[in-house]
Amino acid sequence: MGTTVDPITLKALLTGEGLRHGIPQNPRFCGTPSCDVVYFGQSVTFLQRHLTVPVHAKQPENDAVPVCYCFGDTPASIREEIARSGKGSAFATISAEVKSGRCACEVRNPKGDCCLGDVLKTERRLMSEVALIVG
Predict the structure, then answer these.
(1) pTM tops 0.85
(2) Crossing angle of helices 75-85/116-134, nearest 10°?
(3) Strand order in the sheet with 3-4
(4) Which of 63, 110, 117, 132 has the most CB atoms in a 10 Å sphere around its CB?
Protein backbone atom coordinates (compact mmCIF):
# COMPACT_ATOMS: atom_id res chain seq x y z
CA MET A 1 0.00 0.00 0.00
CA GLY A 2 0.97 3.63 0.02
CA THR A 3 1.90 5.89 -2.86
CA THR A 4 5.37 6.10 -4.33
CA VAL A 5 7.35 9.21 -3.41
CA ASP A 6 10.56 10.48 -4.95
CA PRO A 7 13.51 10.03 -2.57
CA ILE A 8 14.21 13.78 -2.89
CA THR A 9 11.07 14.42 -0.83
CA LEU A 10 12.45 12.37 2.04
CA LYS A 11 15.87 14.02 1.76
CA ALA A 12 14.21 17.43 1.96
CA LEU A 13 11.89 16.69 4.88
CA LEU A 14 13.57 14.17 7.17
CA THR A 15 15.32 15.25 10.33
CA GLY A 16 18.95 14.31 10.86
CA GLU A 17 17.80 11.31 12.87
CA GLY A 18 15.54 10.22 10.03
CA LEU A 19 18.26 10.63 7.41
CA ARG A 20 20.57 8.41 9.45
CA HIS A 21 18.15 5.51 8.85
CA GLY A 22 18.94 5.70 5.13
CA ILE A 23 16.72 6.50 2.16
CA PRO A 24 15.01 3.54 0.48
CA GLN A 25 15.18 3.37 -3.31
CA ASN A 26 11.41 3.32 -3.76
CA PRO A 27 9.92 5.00 -0.70
CA ARG A 28 6.17 5.00 -0.20
CA PHE A 29 3.95 7.50 1.61
CA CYS A 30 1.26 6.45 4.07
CA GLY A 31 -1.50 9.04 4.42
CA THR A 32 -3.65 7.12 6.90
CA PRO A 33 -4.32 9.48 9.84
CA SER A 34 -4.48 6.66 12.40
CA CYS A 35 -1.00 5.40 11.47
CA ASP A 36 2.17 7.13 12.74
CA VAL A 37 4.23 5.84 9.78
CA VAL A 38 4.73 8.52 7.12
CA TYR A 39 7.24 6.83 4.79
CA PHE A 40 8.32 3.24 4.40
CA GLY A 41 10.37 1.10 2.08
CA GLN A 42 12.48 -2.02 2.12
CA SER A 43 13.34 -2.46 5.80
CA VAL A 44 12.99 1.13 7.05
CA THR A 45 10.06 3.22 8.28
CA PHE A 46 9.86 6.89 9.12
CA LEU A 47 7.43 8.21 11.71
CA GLN A 48 5.99 11.70 12.02
CA ARG A 49 8.72 12.58 14.52
CA HIS A 50 11.32 11.95 11.79
CA LEU A 51 10.00 14.83 9.66
CA THR A 52 10.80 18.52 9.95
CA VAL A 53 7.18 19.48 9.18
CA PRO A 54 3.80 18.27 10.44
CA VAL A 55 1.91 16.12 7.95
CA HIS A 56 -1.53 17.37 6.85
CA ALA A 57 -2.62 13.89 5.73
CA LYS A 58 -2.01 12.66 9.27
CA GLN A 59 -3.72 15.64 10.93
CA PRO A 60 -6.32 16.97 8.45
CA GLU A 61 -8.43 18.62 11.17
CA ASN A 62 -5.49 20.47 12.77
CA ASP A 63 -5.92 24.16 11.93
CA ALA A 64 -2.19 24.90 12.23
CA VAL A 65 -0.86 22.16 9.93
CA PRO A 66 -0.26 23.42 6.37
CA VAL A 67 -2.52 22.21 3.62
CA CYS A 68 -0.22 23.93 1.13
CA TYR A 69 3.45 23.66 2.04
CA CYS A 70 4.64 26.04 -0.68
CA PHE A 71 2.49 29.04 0.19
CA GLY A 72 1.65 28.33 3.83
CA ASP A 73 -2.11 27.98 3.61
CA THR A 74 -3.61 26.25 6.65
CA PRO A 75 -7.18 25.35 7.56
CA ALA A 76 -7.10 28.36 9.91
CA SER A 77 -6.09 30.81 7.14
CA ILE A 78 -8.66 29.32 4.76
CA ARG A 79 -11.36 29.57 7.45
CA GLU A 80 -10.42 33.22 8.10
CA GLU A 81 -10.74 34.02 4.38
CA ILE A 82 -14.16 32.37 4.25
CA ALA A 83 -15.33 34.25 7.35
CA ARG A 84 -14.03 37.55 5.98
CA SER A 85 -15.23 37.30 2.38
CA GLY A 86 -17.89 34.60 2.40
CA LYS A 87 -15.88 32.39 0.06
CA GLY A 88 -12.55 30.63 -0.14
CA SER A 89 -9.84 31.79 -2.50
CA ALA A 90 -6.96 29.48 -1.58
CA PHE A 91 -7.65 26.95 -4.33
CA ALA A 92 -7.85 29.60 -7.06
CA THR A 93 -4.80 31.47 -5.79
CA ILE A 94 -2.64 28.37 -5.44
CA SER A 95 -3.84 27.05 -8.83
CA ALA A 96 -2.57 30.24 -10.46
CA GLU A 97 0.79 29.88 -8.72
CA VAL A 98 1.09 26.24 -9.80
CA LYS A 99 0.27 27.16 -13.41
CA SER A 100 2.98 29.81 -13.25
CA GLY A 101 5.51 27.20 -12.11
CA ARG A 102 5.99 28.73 -8.67
CA CYS A 103 5.52 25.66 -6.52
CA ALA A 104 7.87 23.05 -5.09
CA CYS A 105 5.42 20.36 -4.05
CA GLU A 106 7.78 17.49 -4.83
CA VAL A 107 10.13 18.67 -2.07
CA ARG A 108 7.93 20.64 0.32
CA ASN A 109 4.74 18.55 0.50
CA PRO A 110 5.27 15.33 2.50
CA LYS A 111 3.03 13.55 -0.03
CA GLY A 112 5.56 14.46 -2.70
CA ASP A 113 2.96 15.82 -5.10
CA CYS A 114 0.62 18.74 -5.66
CA CYS A 115 -1.50 19.93 -2.75
CA LEU A 116 -4.40 21.26 -4.83
CA GLY A 117 -6.65 18.27 -4.13
CA ASP A 118 -6.14 18.69 -0.38
CA VAL A 119 -6.67 22.45 -0.61
CA LEU A 120 -9.94 22.03 -2.52
CA LYS A 121 -11.17 19.35 -0.11
CA THR A 122 -10.31 21.53 2.90
CA GLU A 123 -11.86 24.64 1.36
CA ARG A 124 -15.11 22.77 0.60
CA ARG A 125 -15.23 21.25 4.09
CA LEU A 126 -14.75 24.63 5.72
CA MET A 127 -17.30 26.30 3.42
CA SER A 128 -19.89 23.71 4.45
CA GLU A 129 -19.00 24.17 8.13
CA VAL A 130 -19.48 27.94 7.82
CA ALA A 131 -22.78 27.38 5.97
CA LEU A 132 -24.02 25.17 8.82
CA ILE A 133 -23.09 27.81 11.39
CA VAL A 134 -24.63 30.69 9.44
CA GLY A 135 -27.64 28.74 8.19
Answers:
(1) yes
(2) 50
(3) 3-4, 28-29, 37-41, 44-47
(4) 110
